[in-house]
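User: What would this chain look like folded?
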Amino acid sequence: MPPNASLTTLNRSITRCRKCARLVEHREQIAAEKKRAFLDWDYWGRPVPGFGDAAARLLIVGLAPAAHGANRTGRMFTGDSSGDWLYGALHRFGFASQSNSESRDDGMQLTDCYISAAGRCAPPGNKPMQEELDTCQPFLERELALLEQVRVILTLGQVAHRQYLRAAGWWNEFAPRDRPAFGHATVTQLPDGIVLLSSYHPSRQNTNTGKLTREMWDGVFSKAGKLLRRL
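Assistant: Here's the prediction, encoded as C-alpha coordinates.
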Protein backbone atom coordinates (compact mmCIF):
# COMPACT_ATOMS: atom_id res chain seq x y z
CA MET A 1 0.00 0.00 0.00
CA PRO A 2 1.47 3.43 -0.90
CA PRO A 3 2.38 5.62 2.13
CA ASN A 4 -0.21 8.26 1.21
CA ALA A 5 -2.94 5.59 1.19
CA SER A 6 -1.99 4.52 4.70
CA LEU A 7 -1.96 8.13 5.88
CA THR A 8 -5.38 8.62 4.31
CA THR A 9 -6.71 5.67 6.30
CA LEU A 10 -5.14 7.01 9.48
CA ASN A 11 -6.54 10.49 8.92
CA ARG A 12 -10.03 9.09 8.46
CA SER A 13 -9.77 7.33 11.81
CA ILE A 14 -8.50 10.53 13.43
CA THR A 15 -11.48 12.58 12.23
CA ARG A 16 -13.92 10.00 13.63
CA CYS A 17 -12.45 9.89 17.15
CA ARG A 18 -14.82 10.68 20.05
CA LYS A 19 -12.80 9.26 22.95
CA CYS A 20 -12.40 12.44 25.02
CA ALA A 21 -15.82 13.65 26.17
CA ARG A 22 -14.57 17.06 27.32
CA LEU A 23 -12.95 17.77 23.96
CA VAL A 24 -15.89 16.48 21.93
CA GLU A 25 -18.25 18.77 23.84
CA HIS A 26 -15.97 21.77 23.50
CA ARG A 27 -15.13 21.43 19.80
CA GLU A 28 -18.78 20.86 18.87
CA GLN A 29 -20.02 23.74 21.03
CA ILE A 30 -17.53 26.09 19.37
CA ALA A 31 -18.60 24.82 15.94
CA ALA A 32 -22.26 25.44 16.76
CA GLU A 33 -21.88 28.86 18.38
CA LYS A 34 -19.13 30.12 16.03
CA LYS A 35 -17.35 33.45 16.21
CA ARG A 36 -19.06 36.57 14.92
CA ALA A 37 -16.41 37.04 12.25
CA PHE A 38 -17.03 33.52 10.92
CA LEU A 39 -20.82 33.15 11.08
CA ASP A 40 -20.92 32.21 7.39
CA TRP A 41 -18.50 29.30 7.94
CA ASP A 42 -19.51 25.67 8.26
CA TYR A 43 -17.11 24.81 11.09
CA TRP A 44 -15.18 21.54 10.87
CA GLY A 45 -15.79 20.78 14.56
CA ARG A 46 -13.95 17.42 14.51
CA PRO A 47 -10.46 16.12 15.26
CA VAL A 48 -7.98 17.59 12.77
CA PRO A 49 -5.81 15.17 10.76
CA GLY A 50 -2.21 15.70 9.70
CA PHE A 51 -1.42 17.54 6.48
CA GLY A 52 1.41 17.56 3.98
CA ASP A 53 3.82 15.52 1.89
CA ALA A 54 3.80 11.77 2.57
CA ALA A 55 7.48 11.66 1.53
CA ALA A 56 8.42 14.54 3.83
CA ARG A 57 11.79 14.71 5.54
CA LEU A 58 10.61 17.50 7.86
CA LEU A 59 7.85 16.78 10.37
CA ILE A 60 6.39 19.66 12.37
CA VAL A 61 4.57 18.82 15.61
CA GLY A 62 2.32 21.50 17.10
CA LEU A 63 0.15 21.53 20.22
CA ALA A 64 -3.53 21.29 19.20
CA PRO A 65 -6.09 22.97 16.90
CA ALA A 66 -7.21 26.49 17.71
CA ALA A 67 -10.93 26.90 18.42
CA HIS A 68 -11.55 29.23 15.48
CA GLY A 69 -8.52 28.17 13.45
CA ALA A 70 -8.12 24.50 12.56
CA ASN A 71 -11.30 23.59 14.43
CA ARG A 72 -13.07 25.85 11.95
CA THR A 73 -11.14 25.06 8.76
CA GLY A 74 -10.25 21.40 9.32
CA ARG A 75 -6.58 21.78 8.44
CA MET A 76 -3.60 22.09 10.75
CA PHE A 77 -2.53 25.69 11.49
CA THR A 78 -5.07 27.10 9.03
CA GLY A 79 -7.19 30.16 9.71
CA ASP A 80 -5.38 31.82 12.62
CA SER A 81 -2.33 33.96 13.38
CA SER A 82 -0.14 30.98 14.30
CA GLY A 83 -0.85 29.56 10.87
CA ASP A 84 0.05 32.87 9.27
CA TRP A 85 3.45 32.67 10.93
CA LEU A 86 3.96 28.99 10.11
CA TYR A 87 2.90 28.93 6.46
CA GLY A 88 4.60 32.26 5.82
CA ALA A 89 7.91 30.76 6.94
CA LEU A 90 7.28 27.48 5.10
CA HIS A 91 6.70 29.47 1.92
CA ARG A 92 9.80 31.61 2.39
CA PHE A 93 11.97 28.52 2.86
CA GLY A 94 10.52 26.49 0.01
CA PHE A 95 8.27 24.04 1.86
CA ALA A 96 4.88 25.57 0.96
CA SER A 97 3.33 26.61 -2.34
CA GLN A 98 1.86 29.80 -0.88
CA SER A 99 2.16 31.95 2.23
CA ASN A 100 -1.54 32.23 3.13
CA SER A 101 -3.42 29.27 4.58
CA GLU A 102 -7.11 30.10 4.80
CA SER A 103 -9.11 26.96 4.04
CA ARG A 104 -8.82 23.33 2.98
CA ASP A 105 -9.69 24.41 -0.57
CA ASP A 106 -7.12 27.18 -1.01
CA GLY A 107 -4.71 25.09 -3.08
CA MET A 108 -1.97 24.90 -0.45
CA GLN A 109 0.63 22.21 -1.19
CA LEU A 110 3.54 21.25 1.04
CA THR A 111 6.82 19.88 -0.27
CA ASP A 112 9.14 17.80 1.93
CA CYS A 113 7.10 18.79 4.99
CA TYR A 114 4.27 17.26 7.02
CA ILE A 115 2.37 18.96 9.86
CA SER A 116 0.95 17.11 12.85
CA ALA A 117 0.10 17.88 16.47
CA ALA A 118 0.18 16.42 19.95
CA GLY A 119 -3.60 16.84 20.29
CA ARG A 120 -6.17 16.70 17.50
CA CYS A 121 -9.13 18.50 19.09
CA ALA A 122 -9.42 22.14 20.13
CA PRO A 123 -9.12 22.14 23.94
CA PRO A 124 -10.73 24.61 26.36
CA GLY A 125 -8.32 27.45 27.05
CA ASN A 126 -5.88 25.97 24.52
CA LYS A 127 -4.74 23.59 27.26
CA PRO A 128 -5.27 19.87 26.65
CA MET A 129 -5.12 17.61 29.70
CA GLN A 130 -2.34 15.04 29.87
CA GLU A 131 -4.81 12.16 29.73
CA GLU A 132 -6.23 13.64 26.51
CA LEU A 133 -2.74 13.91 25.02
CA ASP A 134 -2.13 10.31 26.05
CA THR A 135 -5.30 9.27 24.22
CA CYS A 136 -4.08 11.07 21.08
CA GLN A 137 -0.56 9.66 21.29
CA PRO A 138 -1.22 6.54 19.16
CA PHE A 139 -2.13 8.80 16.23
CA LEU A 140 1.28 10.48 16.37
CA GLU A 141 2.97 7.12 16.87
CA ARG A 142 1.32 5.83 13.72
CA GLU A 143 2.34 8.92 11.74
CA LEU A 144 5.94 8.47 12.82
CA ALA A 145 5.82 4.91 11.53
CA LEU A 146 4.23 5.87 8.21
CA LEU A 147 6.38 8.92 7.46
CA GLU A 148 9.42 6.82 6.69
CA GLN A 149 11.51 9.59 5.09
CA VAL A 150 11.41 11.98 8.07
CA ARG A 151 14.86 13.08 9.20
CA VAL A 152 14.16 16.32 11.11
CA ILE A 153 11.44 16.81 13.72
CA LEU A 154 10.48 20.39 14.58
CA THR A 155 8.49 20.63 17.82
CA LEU A 156 6.57 23.85 18.48
CA GLY A 157 6.40 24.43 22.21
CA GLN A 158 7.34 22.42 25.26
CA VAL A 159 4.22 20.24 25.29
CA ALA A 160 4.69 19.18 21.66
CA HIS A 161 8.36 18.52 22.43
CA ARG A 162 7.47 16.24 25.32
CA GLN A 163 4.71 14.44 23.43
CA TYR A 164 6.99 13.74 20.47
CA LEU A 165 9.54 12.17 22.84
CA ARG A 166 6.76 10.05 24.33
CA ALA A 167 5.37 8.96 20.95
CA ALA A 168 8.83 8.13 19.60
CA GLY A 169 9.71 6.11 22.71
CA TRP A 170 12.56 8.33 23.88
CA TRP A 171 10.79 9.61 27.00
CA ASN A 172 11.22 6.25 28.72
CA GLU A 173 14.42 5.31 26.90
CA PHE A 174 16.38 8.19 28.44
CA ALA A 175 16.90 8.79 32.13
CA PRO A 176 15.04 11.97 33.16
CA ARG A 177 18.26 13.99 33.39
CA ASP A 178 19.32 12.85 29.92
CA ARG A 179 16.11 13.58 28.03
CA PRO A 180 16.53 16.12 25.20
CA ALA A 181 15.77 19.49 26.74
CA PHE A 182 13.36 21.94 25.20
CA GLY A 183 14.73 25.32 24.16
CA HIS A 184 14.25 27.69 21.28
CA ALA A 185 16.35 26.58 18.28
CA THR A 186 17.84 23.75 20.33
CA VAL A 187 19.12 20.81 18.25
CA THR A 188 19.47 17.24 19.52
CA GLN A 189 20.83 14.30 17.52
CA LEU A 190 18.82 11.24 18.53
CA PRO A 191 20.28 7.71 18.52
CA ASP A 192 18.10 6.63 15.58
CA GLY A 193 19.57 9.32 13.31
CA ILE A 194 16.63 11.70 13.64
CA VAL A 195 17.48 15.32 14.44
CA LEU A 196 15.16 16.99 16.95
CA LEU A 197 14.80 20.76 16.59
CA SER A 198 12.64 22.71 19.04
CA SER A 199 11.09 26.17 18.86
CA TYR A 200 8.78 28.44 20.76
CA HIS A 201 5.23 28.08 19.48
CA PRO A 202 4.07 30.98 17.22
CA SER A 203 1.13 31.73 19.51
CA ARG A 204 -0.05 35.30 20.03
CA GLN A 205 1.21 35.02 23.60
CA ASN A 206 4.73 34.60 22.23
CA THR A 207 4.63 36.71 19.08
CA ASN A 208 2.80 39.72 20.55
CA THR A 209 5.14 39.91 23.52
CA GLY A 210 8.33 39.60 21.49
CA LYS A 211 9.31 36.30 23.07
CA LEU A 212 9.31 35.00 19.51
CA THR A 213 10.36 37.46 16.80
CA ARG A 214 10.30 37.03 13.03
CA GLU A 215 14.08 36.85 13.02
CA MET A 216 14.06 34.09 15.63
CA TRP A 217 11.30 32.25 13.76
CA ASP A 218 13.01 32.41 10.39
CA GLY A 219 16.22 31.30 12.08
CA VAL A 220 14.55 28.03 13.05
CA PHE A 221 13.52 27.27 9.47
CA SER A 222 16.91 28.29 8.16
CA LYS A 223 18.43 25.81 10.61
CA ALA A 224 15.95 23.10 9.56
CA GLY A 225 16.91 23.61 5.91
CA LYS A 226 20.61 23.38 6.70
CA LEU A 227 20.07 20.19 8.71
CA LEU A 228 18.16 18.59 5.85
CA ARG A 229 20.89 19.47 3.37
CA ARG A 230 23.45 17.72 5.55
CA LEU A 231 21.44 14.51 5.95
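The mean pLDDT is 97. If you want, I can go into more detail on any region.
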